[in-house]
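Why does residue order matter? Because the sequence determines the fold. Keep that principle in mind as you read this record.
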Amino acid sequence: MKIREIMETLQLNKLLDKGDRHHNQLMTQWGELIEREQIDVVLTEYPRPQLARKNYTILNGIWKYAIMNEDARPVIWDGDIRVPFSPETYLSGVQRQLKPNEYLWYERRLIIDRIPMEKRLLLNFGACDERCRVYVNDTLAGVHSGGYQAFTIDITDCIQVGKNTLRICVQDKSDTSYHGRGKQALKNGGMFYTAQSGLWQTVWCEWVPQIYIQELRITPDYDNNRVILEIESNKCLEKMISEEMVSCKILLFDQNQIVNEIKTNVLVSKKAVIVINISDKKSWTPEHPFLYDVRIVYGEDMVESYFGMRLFTAEPDSKGVPRLCLNHLPYFQKGILDQGYYPESLLTPVSDEAMIFDIETAKAKGFNMIRKHCKIEPMRWYYHCDRLGMLVWQDMINGGTTYNLVKTCYIPTVLFPLRHKRDNDYSYTSRANKIGREEWKKECIETIKQLYNCTSICTWVLFNEGWGQFDAKENTDMVRAVDNTRLIDAHSGWFDQDAGDFKSEHIYFFELVVKKGIKPYVISEFGGISLAIADHTYSDRFFGYGSQGNKEALKSAYNELDKRVQELKKEGLCASVYTQLTDIEEEINGIMTYDRKVVKL
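Structure:
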């Protein structure tokens, strides 16, 4: 393909911003069910299987909302909104874009029949985009920043028996500032999609005892046939000199049978580290995703979790070729890019069944890995990957000021020497703001801690195609200090700083090849073949690479790429990531349509 043709294709998404577009309101089958049955309270499953409690109340459903030009509490509300769907979405019932200078307010009642003695009430948020203040009965209970990370606020001192009022004030700068935003854009088009705001994952509350488990970290020690549990209570950092003890009992289950039981006493002022030996270990793989269940009784608190025994490494094979390994065996990771958007709900999965459908479809099409691109999913999505057997590469959320896509995206795609440009020129990669760089580090660490116990996550992807990239070597060291059990893709695409565990490149317009070196080589994006399916497109403007006219042509083009990937495995290719699982708005290169009603392959 000529360079001019490549550049024209790459800049197509910029051309799409010119002129009017027609947008179709597509719906998945799960969104249609919500609409048809007029279901107000959605996503009612317990949202955090990795640290689950029994005594909880889901607060999804109908809240009041108002969009204001100032952050003063509304006197008159604009109407109702279905939480946890963002106001920009169809299923929210609002369909209005929150602007960067506006404030989004929520309100709902919380009825508390009684306040149990010696109990605390925790208010949990799966995610709120992007910054918020939380009020309980007109008292500021807490604040949070970061549009993709979960957070918890102890509201015990703010509540009363009877009627309580929850109010949340949200502001979202979207792509007008340096904050983490993923693929969101106030002016969507091409490979950037409709921005959303506010509550977009489940909200719930749960009663806990005065001393409760605040953080649980589970580390499978594969080679030594054991698992290491680290338990921190809410009192761990409050009273470092406290001698208060609490009893701790841990039950380990193998298919509902107790296979180990440990009883001990621990200091609440210190992190408890407990090692559990596992006899006759059962390994976790995508083909055999065996999970152990664990129950922890910590004083009066009880939580349930799970884990899989697996190990991710980079090792030479029998011929000395560097490979990605699972449990010390070379394991080719055949991946697909997944950005987790839905036409009626944007970043919010419509239902538990919708999440399962996407994972099972990818698995049925021969993929054993999903690259979760520029998004953090609800914790249940990772649970389904754990139990169904799907490896996950988890992207960190990209931020930074406005991207110059010509410099950071289009030119490096075709001029390979620029793929090694240094990433300490912060203005080049939209990271001149020091506060923004520190914010990315903070949210990166929060993301790793939040997702640490997810068995399926094998790789952290720090930066994508130079978007907001900075100091990849130093940030790789930072991530390694937080989690040394997973592999790191420090720079997916280009701007390679020789950091991380493998060489990761995107190849869209040239023949797929392997570049041999001392690190495993992966093609972390390729393909992107487009096909528009009549009556299943979001817009009359399309974006993608290598457009095909029908399913047979798409299948033929895909099979040629897949055949090449199979050949390259012998030459040292260790992983591939095909773009992508579903169409998203104008981007029509999915193996499924945006509404999930047509599987193209």
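The first helix runs from residue 3 to 10.
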